[in-house]
Amino acid sequence: MNADLMLTIEALQNQESQQGIHAVVLDAIREYGFERFIISGLPDRGMDVRPFVLLSGWDDEWYQRYTKLGYVDVDPVARNCFATTLPFDWSAAPYDRAEDFSARRVMDEARDFGMDEGLCVPVHLEGGMQGVVSLVGRTDWLDEKQRLELHMLALYAHGRLRFLNTMDRTPARRLITPREAEVLKWVAVGKTASEIADITGLSFRTVNQHCENAQRRLGTNNRLHTVVEAIRQKLIVL
Predict the structure, then answer these.
(1) What's the burial of 145, exposed, middle or buried (CB within 10 Å: 0-12/13-18/19+)?
(2) Is the model's pLDDT at 163 over the cut of 80?
(3) Which of 67, 144, 158, 213 shows the greatest Cβ crowding within 10 Å of its Cβ?
């Protein structure tokens, strides 16, 4: 994890309001060329998305139109979040422009509001709940390192907003073992399972097992999300 990203995560951890998180996220994503964003849960089809929205940095007029007309049900970007765990460019969200009129209308209207390109980060939560962080802006110049940084930033911001939204201020329980915490610390600084095995004296298989156990305990869906949740809950300190 690079120093700038760590500082951003620390800044998010210190925020106690949506306004504070909005300011930190906006400053951070501007470094990558993005200007607008939304952080939300995704409801089942037919449900109003507004109670699920954690933080909106969209144009107000577009937000009102999108939520009032139930565009989340036909938005190909939102739909694709249920099909993948990995970040994707909006342009990669599959739909048939010739046949899927509703999806085409959403994308065309978004373009009219200056939202024709973006990056979407799906957030899969324990219990089958689905979330999303969607960033507005060009993506063609992003390299893999920057995409990974944005992925981590998005997961952390989503988690911090969920925490504030539930007002669950009880101290974090020790959800992972000390050995699992040690392994996750090395994952957080970019070490591979093989490298962690060499450093700790554990076998490659045991390192992966510790990661999988921590993932199961924290209710996350991949290794990166596990690290982010462990940091957010202060189960590991870098």
Answers:
(1) exposed
(2) yes
(3) 158
Beta-carbon count within 10 A of 98 CB? 7
Question: CA–CA separation, 157 vs 172, rounded Å?
Answer: 18
- Start-end of H helices in the chain: 3-13, 18-30, 60-68, 76-80, 101-112, 144-166, 178-188, 193-200, 204-218, 223-232
User: What is the distance between the alpha carbons of residues 75 and 93, in angstroms, rounded to a whole number?
Assistant: 9
- pTM value > 0.85: no
Q: For residue 156, give the amino acid letter.
A: Y
CATH of 3-166, one of 2.60.40.1840, 3.90.180.10, 3.30.450.80, 3.40.50.720: 3.30.450.80
Domains of the chain, residue spans: 3-166, 178-232
Residues 27-42 have pLDDT tens digits of 999 999 999 999 999 9
